[in-house]
Amino acid sequence: MMQKGALNVEKIRKDFPILKRKVMGGKPLVYLDNAATTQKPLAVIDAIHDYYMNYNSNIHRAVHQLAEEATKAYEDTRVKIAKFINARSTDEIIFTRNTTEAINLVAYSWGRANIKKDDRIVITEIEHHSNIVPWQILTQEKGAKLEYIGVGDDGYLKMHEYKKYLDSGKVKLVSVSHMSNVLGTITPINDIINMAHEKGIPVLVDGAQSVPHMPVDVQKLDCEFMAFSAHKMLGPTGVGVLYVKRELLEKMPPFMGGGDMIKEVHKYETRYNDLPYKFEGGTPNIADVIGFAAAIDYLQKIGMDRVREHEIDITKYALDRVAQVKGVTIYGPMNAIDRGGVVSFNIGDIHPHDLATIMNDHGVAIRSGHHCAQVLMERLDVAATSRASFYIYNTKEEVDVFIDALSEARRLFKI
């Protein structure tokens, strides 16, 4: 019997053709690598197919019917994204290739105009490399410094360290993950933003793991920047989103020079296009942006509150079951309310790559490695972890298959 408001997962699964696949000699695919990328429903696949079949054209330039249809579909996606995260205007929504490019855009455009020698940029030990490396490049170039908020053994941020950095008077930007792709930790983002704003410091939120999994409202958060990717929320690869408050965006210089980001180009000067097009040089990933609209529609129909409820339920079940496996170390908060649908762990002295291979033999797709978070791996004093991550189409029965495969690995390695 379905609980009131619970997801009808069996019905949802029918919308994802790949979940019918058999792998490794006939085993059902158990896909638990959603933090890396999610599978795509037919609605998204059909939207991309429809574009190429029926109105393939470049956008913004021509006046023929195909161009007008493609431009409308492309810009409709921008409208849907603005509503999805509750931006004040579509002018604040910039299309990029991914979260990484979105963060780099801020580092190169806003960062190079605003970060000076001896300034501080604050990030955390749980960050993905895409929210570390751009700031390393920028601070090294400017003679500024990167400061890290530490993470405790329980997976929670050491907020007293954050306060100390802010009190130094040297911090010019805070850039933090809303949800860790390794620990699953949901950071106290409201406190982080409010504390920064008390000192007049802007905040960038890496929403790659949060926007796909919970309701996110940029006006309520009041962050200056937010970055996320389509492919982690049922959409295609190659589409990222950067939200920027308009008052900042108007002052930022362009990131990419070329076509479509201009009004007029003369021999020695150029007048740039209006927002947001000033930051979207060249022909964009039109088909996949249109496909992203179908993904947003799909999630909106389900409701992000229900997406979150489902993940809390399945994550709690997975945490309870994994914790019962002998020899397992789980990383991150043990309370499912405080984490996203991610369980990172190690088991005995089995290398995560060996474990992932055994899992694959059972048809279970998990991720192993450093998860583009080597700073965190150093903090945890491990080379790598195994990671199972969940989404709307995952079931407790799949968690059981995953646990059976874990038990088999224990048997093989005599743990």
From TrEMBL:
Lineage: Archaea, Nitrososphaerota, Nitrososphaeria, Nitrososphaerales, Nitrososphaeraceae
Superkingdom of the source species: Archaea
Family membership: Belongs to the class-V pyridoxal-phosphate-dependent aminotransferase family. Csd subfamily.
EC assignment: 2.8.1.7
Reaction catalysis annotation: (sulfur carrier)-H + L-cysteine = (sulfur carrier)-SH + L-alanine
CDD domains in the record: SufS_like
Keywords attached to this entry: Lyase, Pyridoxal phosphate, Transferase
GO terms for MF: cysteine desulfurase activity; lyase activity; pyridoxal phosphate binding
Any Pfam family the entry gives: Aminotran_5
Protein name: cysteine desulfurase
InterPro entries to which the protein is assigned, alphabetical: Aminotrans_V_dom, Cys_dSase_SufS, Cysteine_dSase, PyrdxlP-dep_Trfase, PyrdxlP-dep_Trfase_major, PyrdxlP-dep_Trfase_small
One Gene Ontology biological process: cysteine metabolic process
Gene3D superfamilies: Aspartate Aminotransferase, domain 1, Type I PLP-dependent aspartate aminotransferase-like (Major domain)
